[in-house]
Amino acid sequence: MMKLHDLTQSDLDILKSIENIVDGIATMYGQHTEVVLHSLDAKHPSVVKIANGHITGREVGAPITNLAIQKLKSGQDISNAYLTKCANGKTLRSTTTIIRNSKDQPIGLLCINTDMDAPLQSVLRTMMPEQLFSNEQTHSPEVFARNIDEALHSAIDSVNHEVRANAAISPSQKSREIVNQLHELGIFELKDSAQVAATRLGISVHSIYRYLREIKANQAENDKASA
């Protein structure tokens, strides 16, 4: 039988740092997925953070479940997905992950429970970005690049698209603004980035270097003025 121990302050800090992960997972999967962080403190093994607790009716302070204890004893740090029924009759698809400290001692459990009885249309709707159901649809700049070249091209194209579409920036200033934004992103720290940017933006590399010199000169003046 796996014995629980009294958690140290370091253990509690680890669990505290995972609370944002609970909210992040719940935000990703929506209101039909419950995310629970259990403390395995021997004095009071219980829920210390929960999102979408309406699914099982639990709150912070609720005791750890017998099934969670069984998963702890199984020897698997990440359980296979399993089906259960909670007290209110809902069928849940669940998975449990053991959280360990630097001594490899179990200090917590991260459990994810999805309501399998929820209407499919409602599940899909909660997982869709809100702007899809409003009149404020926007272009997403995120691209999942497979290498540094794709990441570089994506960043340049994204900034170029946004600046070119911004009517508040005069045409004569657009190239300068694009270079300024790419500089703020740190793009020009990458090897050959100025040449790549010049090609994709259709401007000369000499213009890019000139804009960068002006940007750095302005930054130096501002730093001197604020000193």
Largest sheet: 5 strands, antiparallel
Strand ordering within the main sheet: 2-1-5-4-3
Apparent shape: elongated
Low-confidence stretches: 131-139
Distance between the termini: 64 Å
Helical residue percent band: 40-55%
What letter string, H or E per element, gives the SSE order? Answer: HHEEHEEEHHHHH
Overall strand count? 5
Query: Compute the gyration radius: what is it?
Result: 26 Å
* SS element count, helices: 8
**Would you tell me the structural class of the helices and strands?**
alpha+beta
The averaged pLDDT comes out at 85
Q: Keywords, please?
A:
227 residues; alpha+beta; five-stranded antiparallel sheet
Tell me about this structure.
- The chain is α+β, with helices and mostly antiparallel strands.
- The chain is 42% helix and 16% strand.
- The protein has eight helices and five strands, in the order ααββαβββααααα.
- Strands 2-1-5-4-3 form a five-stranded antiparallel sheet, with helices on both faces.
- Mean pLDDT is 85; it is low at 131-139.
Topology at a glance:
Layout: H1 9-17, H2 19-29, E1 33-39, E2 46-51, H3 66-73, E3 82-85, E4 91-100, E5 106-115, H4 120-127, H5 148-164, H6 174-184, H7 193-201, H8 205-226
Antiparallel strand pairs: 1-2, 1-5, 3-4, 4-5
Helix pairs in contact: 5-6, 5-7, 6-8, 7-8
In brief, what are we looking at here?
This protein is an alpha+beta fold and 227 residues long. It has eight helices and five strands, in the order H-H-E-E-H-E-E-E-H-H-H-H-H.
